Amino acid sequence: MTANLPAAGLQLQSTLEADGTLRLGLGKAPVVQPGPDQVVVRVQAAPINPSDLMTMLASADPAQGQFDAAGVALQVAAEEAQRRAGRFGQLLAIGLGGSGTVIAAGKDAEHLDGKAVAFLAMARGSFGQYVTASIAECASLPDGVSVTEGADVFCNPMTALSMAEQVRLEGQNALIHTAAASNLGQMLVKICQEDGLELVNVVRRQEQVDLLKSLGAEHVCNSSAPSFQDDLRQAIAATGATIAFDAIGGGDSVATLHRAMEDVAASRLGFYSPYGSFEPKQVCIYGHLDTSPMVLHNDEYGMDWIVRHWAMPQTLGRVGPERAAELQRRVLGGLKTTFASSFGHEISLVQALDRDVMLAYARQSTGEKYLINPTL
Prior knowledge:
Elements: E1 8-16, E2 21-30, E3 38-47, H1 50-57, E4 66-68, E5 71-75, H2 78-83, E6 91-93, E7 97-105, E8 116-120, E9 130-134, E10 138-140, H3 155-169, E11 174-178, H4 183-195, E12 198-203, H5 206-214, E13 219-222, H6 228-239, E14 243-246, E15 249-251, H7 253-267, E16 281-285, E17 290-294, E18 305-309, H8 312-319, H9 321-333, E19 345-347, H10 355-362, E20 370-372
Parallel strand pairs: 11-12, 11-14, 12-13, 14-16, 15-17, 16-18, 19-20
Antiparallel strand pairs: 1-2, 1-6, 2-5, 3-7, 3-9, 3-20, 4-5, 7-8, 8-10
């Protein structure tokens, strides 16, 4: 049914101008009537994930922004702005995923009418009151699961599961993960325990070590500890990990991971080789917590090493639709356990543009994950 749909709803939007000015504000977005295989969702919960901040902030620093009743104006560095020249002047909706209630459905989607669903809308817009999405982008929430508990069915859980799938596709049984105390990282700890995979976790602070240890993680390396380099090599040697998933991306993070894997591989040669080991190693970059340039020293990682961008859809495409559906069912069945998301703050759309609130969620601190509730 499509009757009585509102004409428009509030939506958080972002525009980058050619001079590097990034403008954020609340605008009226038309509510798109659903096609035959689409639904309209009244959004009730939308997590703020790093992938959303990429669109929202475009690497601008909110601490330097101008905040007023009209919205927020941020300044993107000239080089960063030019890298995003394709979006100059475009009004972009923000927010990929969330959950809510279906209020209208096309003829092939009527089984979802009135249901609570999670969604991943590739056209974005979850930081708004209404989203039109295809049934392929939606999943019915199980009975007893609230919209808050089901707010992040697709992004973090499916990414974590896809990492485990990628490791198996590579014929491996171990992996390294950075920024490992995140919601995604905590899920990955549980997945690896359930699936019998070895996991090396890299974090920045002792309290994050304690958090992951409390979940049963065996190998947790604190990058701020004096013993970090030795700890990382020992963990790699113990697990045999030769594939890493890096959420940091910039600076020397990738170099540190590759150097550690190569040092362990070279130590197993039994002789000195000026060319390093022949053992294949790879770092898959899936995040950009550090937006500075990546620094590599390509003579330090042996004869066979790879750095590549990685994202969940790549792996799901390789495993095929049947396996992807199995993974989604696993997520839906574990929303209160393995795939439980923890939100430290629930805010309204208006509050998302508050200076202090934006500074807080832009820090992406462990235990401080923000959830937008457009109904507030």
